[in-house]
Design goal:
Keywords: Calcium, Hydrolase, Metal-binding, Signal
EC number: 3.1.6.1
Pfam families: Sulfatase (PF00884)
Order of helices and strands: HEHEEHHHEEEEHEHHEHEEEEHHEEEEH
CATH superfamily of the largest domain: Alkaline Phosphatase, subunit A
CATH topology of the largest domain: Alkaline Phosphatase, subunit A
Strand order of the largest sheet: 7-6-5-4-8-1-9-11-2-12
Distance between the termini: 30 Å
Number of strands: 17
Helix content: 25-40%
Protein name: Arylsulfatase
InterPro entries: Alkaline_phosphatase_core_sf, Sulfatase, Sulfatase_CS, Sulfatase_N
Length: about 475
C-alpha cells in the first residue's frame, strides 16, 4: 500500500472514531442492524427493456421479479456512462468517470486504469471491519495491466478475495478459461459464466467469509455481453423465437441472481443485507437487447444507452413491492453504502453521487453536482448529457450544438425543445460548461487530451 493511502487511512481511522458512532473499534455482529451487509449485482449490457420486471412480455426474469416484489423498483435508474469500464469505476468510487480517470472502456492498451489514489467503498468498509469479495468481470485496467502486480488490482481497491476476468468471459459464457482467483489463473471451467460467478459468491459466503463480520460483495456477471453462450435449459424456454439465445441469456443471468439470493438465505443474512441490482449500460444494437422504447443504445448518452434496470432490497428498510420514480445513478451506490453503514463521505475530493436512501421511499434526493454523462464513443451529436430535475440537455462532441428534453414527460426524447425554449437551453448550457470544466480540472486529463475519440483498432467494438 502506498504511503499516501497509509496516511489517509490513519486519518480516516481518527475521523471514524471521533465523528461516527457506527465506526467504533468494537467489532460488530452481523446481526447488528447498524452494520448491514452489501451485495451489488451488475449485469453486462442489459437493456432497460430486457426483463419481465420492466415490461418485456417474452423474457422470463423470475428472480428480478422476486427481488422487485421484496423491495423497490427504480423507474429512472442510470448507469454513469454508456459503456462498461467508466460506469463500473463510478460504482466503486462515487465519482463521475472523467473525474476518477476511467474515462473510456479499457479493452485495448491504455495508460488509463482505476488509480490507487481513488477511494472505493470496499476500502472504507474494510477499514470499518467488513470482509470484502469481488466475483466476475473487472475491466478497470487495460489488458496489459490485468493481474499485473505493478498496477492496482482488486486487492489494492479494498477486496480481500476476488475471482475475476479482465473483460469478457472467454472464449464465451460456456466453459470460460480466463478467470483468475486472488492472482492465480483458474484454468478450464465447466459451466456457464453467470452460474460460475454466482457459485463462487456462494462459496465465499459459506466457506471463506468469517460470519462474525459484516461483508460487502460485488457480483459482476458477464451476461448478456457478447460472445453469448446460453445453456439449453434457458434457451429452450424460447424455442422457435429468432432471438432465443439472447432471451435465454437474460434468463441465465437472472438465474444467477436467484443463486445469490438463495445463498444469502442459506446463510441467514438476507434480512440484514442491502442487495442492489443494475446494469453497466444499455444494450448493444443487433444482438437482441431492447431499450423498452428509449432512444439510443449502448454508447449513447440518450436514455437507451444510460437508463438501466435498478432494484434494491433491504428488509425492514425498503417497503416491498414499491416503485420509485426518483432519478438515481451508479455513482450513488458509493454514497448510499457509506450512508447506511455510517461512514463519512471523504472530504478531500468531489463525490458526485449522493445517498439514494430517500429514493428508496420515493423521496427526492438533493444533489450539488448534476447528473452528468460523457461517453467517449457516443455518436457525435450526443457525446455529453446532463440532467437537472426533469430537464436534460444533450450536447455534441464539440459542445457547440445542443438538444433539450423535458425527460419526465418525454422519456423517449422525441421532442427537442432547444429552439423553442432558448432561455432554458442557455441556462442548462452554462451549468453544463461549469460542470465539465470542474470535472476536467480534477481528472487526469493527460490521459484523454489529444487521444482520438473513437475505439482502438484492436478493440473491435467488443466492449
Amino acid at each position: 500500500m502506498s504511503q499516501f493511502k497509509q496516511l489517509r487511512f490513519a486519518v480516516l481511522a481518527v475521523l471514524l472514531t471521533c465523528c461516527c458512532e457506527h465506526a467504533r473499534s468494537v467489532e460488530p455482529s452481523p446481526a447488528d442492524p447498524a452494520k448491514p451487509n452489501v451485495v451489488i449485482f451488475v449485469a453486462d449490457d442489459m437493456g432497460w427493456g430486457d426483463s419481465a420486471t420492466y415490461g418485456n412480455e417474452l423474457i422470463q426474469t423470475p428472480n428480478m421479479d422476486r427481488m422487485a416484489s421484496q423491495g423497490v423498483k427504480f423507474m429512472q435508474c442510470y448507469s454513469a456512462c454508456g459503456v462498461c469500464s467508466p460506469s463500473r469505476s463510478a460504482i466503486l468510487t462515487g465519482r463521475t468517470p472523467y473525474r476518477n480517470g476511467v474515462w473510456r472502456h479499457l479493452s485495448g492498451i491504455h495508460d488509463a486504469h482505476l488509480r490507487e489514489s481513488e477511494i472505493t467503498y470496499p476500502e472504507l468498509l474494510k477499514e470499518a471491519g467488513y470482509e470484502t469479495c469481488h466475483v466476475g468481470k473487472w475491466h478497470l485496467n487495460s489488458s496489459q495491466h490485468f493481474n499485473n502486480p505493478e498496477f492496482p488490482q482488486p486487492g489494492e481497491h479494498g477486496f480481500d478475495y476476488w475471482m475475476y476476468t479482465h473483460n469478457n468471459a472467454s472464449p464465451s459464457h460456456k466453459n470460460p478459461n480466463n478467470f483468475v482467483r486472488n492472482g492465480d489463473p483458474v484454468g478450464a471451467t465447466q459451466g456457464y459464466s453467470a452460474q460460475l460467478v454466482a457459485a463462487e459468491a456462494a462459496h465465499w459466503l459459506k466457506d471463506v467469509h468469517d460470519p462474525s463480520k459484516p461483508f460487502a460483495m460485488s457480483v459482476w456477471v458477464h451476461e448478456p455481453h457478447s460472445p453469448i453462450a446460453t445453456d439449453t435449459r434457458f434457451e429452450s424456454l424460447y424455442k422457435g423465437h429468432k432471438n432465443s439465445k439472447y432471451m435465454g441469456n437474460i434468463t441465465q443471468m437472472d438465474n444467477a441472481l436467484g443463486m445469490v439470493m438463495d445463498a444469502l438465505d442459506a446463510q441467514g443474512v438476507s434480512e440484514n443485507t442491502l442487495l442492489f441490482f443494475t446494469s453497466d449500460n444499455g444494450p448493444v444494437p443487433g444482438f437482441g437487447g431492447v431499450t423498452g422504447g428509449l432512444r439510443g443504445h449502448k454508447r449513447s448518452d440518450h436514455e437507451g444507452g444510460i437508463r438501466v434496470p435498478g432494484l434494491a432490497r433491504w428488509p425492514g428498510h425498503i417497503a416491498p413491492g414499491t416503485t420509485s420514480d426518483v432519478p438515481v445513478i451508479g455513482t450513488d451506490i458509493f454514497s448510499t453504502v457509506l450512508d447506511i453503514v455510517g461512514i463519512p463521505i471523504p472530504a478531500d475530493r468531489t463525490i458526485d453521487g449522493v445517498s439514494m436512501v430517500p429514493a428508496f421511499a420515493g423521496t427526492s434526493v438533493q444533489r450539488t453536482v448534476p447528473l452528468f454523462w460523457r461517453t467517449h464513443v457516443s455518436p457525435a451529436d450526443d457525446r455529453v448529457a446532463m440532467r437537472i430535475g426533469d430537464w436534460k440537455i444533450v450536447g455534441n462532441d464539440t459542445l457547440t450544438q445542443f438538444q433539450l428534453y423535458e425527460i419526465q414527460k418525454d422519456w423517449k426524447e422525441e421532442t427537442d425543445l432547444a429552439e423553442t425554449m432558448p432561455d432554458k437551453t442557455e441556462e442548462m448550457k452554462q451549468i453544463l460548461f461549469k460542470t465539465w470544466a470542474d470535472i476536467e480540472e480534477q481528472g487526469p486529463s493527460e490521459w484523454w487530451k489529444g487521444e482520438r475519440q473513437k475505439p482502438t483498432a484492436n478493440a473491435k467494438l467488443n466492449y
